[in-house]
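testing teh design pipeline on a random one, pls ignore if ur not involved
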């Protein structure tokens, strides 16, 4: 996995100073000017792993055999455990499954 993650945060600070007749700061008020301070965080993500993935699968179906052809239909399921890295900042194993009805036709051409 190769990726690039960037976060941008804008922080807002409100401040105003109260001064006396000698221009000395005597307190802070909650209202006043707004300062915007941007923060940027850029993180490259580079992970490479080779793993052995366990697979569990099966099917149930019917087949009809003719002289030079075969017709099959049924239901098939295949499940792969820990096959996908689904994490963003850190590796996270995820399972993947493929399942559903199927149909096939086979035709012999000689022999």
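output:
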């Amino acid at each position: 996995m190769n990726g690039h993650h960037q976060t941008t945060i804008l922080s807002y600070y409100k401040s105003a100073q109260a001064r006396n007749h000698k221009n000395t700061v005597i307190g802070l008020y909650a209202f006043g000017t707004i300062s915007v301070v941007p923060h940027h965080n850029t993180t490259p993500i580079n992970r490479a792993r080779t793993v052995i993935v366990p697979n569990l699968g099966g099917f149930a179906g019917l087949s009809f055999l003719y002289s030079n052809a075969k017709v099959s239909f049924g239901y098939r399921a295949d499940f792969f455990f820990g096959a996908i890295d689904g994490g963003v900042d850190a590796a996270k194993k995820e399972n993947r499954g493929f399942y559903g009805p199927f149909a096939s036709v086979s035709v012999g051409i000689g022999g």
